[in-house]
Design brief:
Blueprint lengths: L1 H12 L2 H21 L4 H21 L8 H20 L17 H20 L4 H11 L4 H8 L3 H21 L1 H9 L1
Helix pairs in contact: 1-2, 2-3, 2-4, 3-4, 5-9, 6-8, 7-8
């Protein structure tokens, strides 16, 4: 994971040497997947660049907690971007054979990556909520009853319920407006 830390820092800082090295180490896996699934070399470059932008944004946000090697996570982003493009083109004929990919990304690993994406999306927008809304939702997600929440916040039970509903609604609205939500929605 030390190598991953260097790569992550290089991506965030825009280090040309690290970006070039990252490209050289990963392009063949992305190329193999896309070419086996109705793509061409131009598609490979486009997806690689788009995935690098997505990865950069996630790393810059500070909310991404990688539980897999950066290479595997990046491959998952590329795979999802390509699947989404194929679905949009109505050409979804995916060959999921992981030929040539050293770490053999299984479906469960891709599912983990997709869950990480959802969690990242949730956390990103949760942080944008007011302190009051965050507190209400946090208490609710902790499993506290409305009675307990009303005692902690000082609201009546009915008002606490109303405020919790409004906070959830606001959070969902922000999430649904995020372009990443559309991408994740297509995957599911």
């Amino acid at each position: 994971m030390d190598k991953d830390r260097v790569i992550i820092a290089g991506i965030i800082d825009g280090d040309e040497k690290i970006l070039t090295c990252f490209y050289k180490e990963n392009i063949r896996y992305i190329q193999g997947y896309i070419l086996r699934n109705n793509g061409n070399s131009e598609d490979v470059e486009d997806v690689f660049q788009d995935a690098l932008v997505v990865l950069y944004q996630k790393l810059r946000s500070g909310l991404l907690e990688l539980r897999v090697p950066i290479k595997t996570y990046f491959y998952g982003i590329c795979k999802n971007l390509w699947r989404n493009r194929l679905k949009k083109k109505k050409k979804l004929i995916i060959n999921d054979e992981q030929y040539g990919f050293n770490e053999r990304v299984g479906e469960s690993l891709i599912a983990d990556i997709e869950n990480q994406e959802r969690e990242h999306l949730y956390r990103k927008h949760f942080q944008k909520l007011s302190t009051e809304n965050k507190k209400l939702l946090y208490l609710f997600f902790e499993g506290k009853s409305m009675k307990e929440i009303s005692k902690i916040t000082g609201y009546s039970e009915g008002y606490a319920r109303k405020k919790k509903f409004e906070a959830k609604k606001k959070l969902l609205k922000m999430i649904e407006k995020d372009p990443m939500y559309s991408e994740l929605k297509i995957i599911c």
